[in-house]
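Aggregate trends can hide what the representation actually does to any particular protein. The sequence in question and its structure tokens are set out directly beneath this paragraph.
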Amino acid sequence: MRDPVTAIIAAAVLFGITTPVLKVLLSAIAPILLVALLSLGAGGGVLCWLAVSEPGFAGLALPSLRGRERYWLAGTVVIGGLVAPFVQFTSLAVTPAAAASVLLNFEIVSTVLIAYLIFREPIDRRTGVALAAILAGSVLLSWNGGSIFDFSIGAAGIILSCLLWGLDNNFMGRVSALRPGMIVVVKGLCGGSIAWVLVFLLHEPFPGWMPIVFALVTGFLSFGAGLVLLISALRSMGAARAGAVYAAAPFIGCIVSLLLFADPLGNQFWAALPLFIAGAMIVIRDHWAGQGLN
């Protein structure tokens, strides 16, 4: 997709749909095995796609990396391909759904703050307002009227995973020498291979073939195709602006969960909806204005 706004919206949809799917997969697959399957599905699937989509396997070219880009790539392989998903999946398995929904929104906060504090990426006031609106909608949608902020090992683990994903998002956006597809291939195959070795070292049990196939397909669609779209948007829009739209992914996941589990739509849903729409439209309108499309 050439338009970064379209790319980040598509990435948010893919990752949002994946959230309830992961909850189902974790009931049948151990976290480290799920990391291996999702990563290998993402890397292997995108590799096959690149191999058949361009003549002469031109899409598989690996140019030499210069300077800090080698460290950015190594960081995204280790952090985003192995550590962050393992911490998140392990924590999701022991954390109540309501608390997890709130805490997972820290990913966008950590992405923007790391971009601002470490990489000196500017954040304008309108982007800050959009981010605040989307996060407010996330909290409102996730709040169940009780005390869901009591910290536990699972909650601390989710916060840690969000910080790691924030680092990963910033690292990926700065590996400019590699095409987004090749970043996903390297990240998925390397991270998945390490996780696969750990699966055998830890003697993790294997489920039936249906959950395995389902995990591989989910990995390709979300952590493969979705990640390619996310990287493209990060490069064009920056972590702060792209992240403000990407923060709608938990909202999309909530909609899918409601439909999947036949839960009724409550007042919180309709109260949060305008906040998500307003935040996303601010970022989209600003981007279009900057591209002269208004």
Summary: The chain has one domain: 4-57+65-290. The mean pLDDT is 78. The CA atoms of residues 74 and 187 lie 8 Å apart. The chain is about 75% helix and 0% strand.
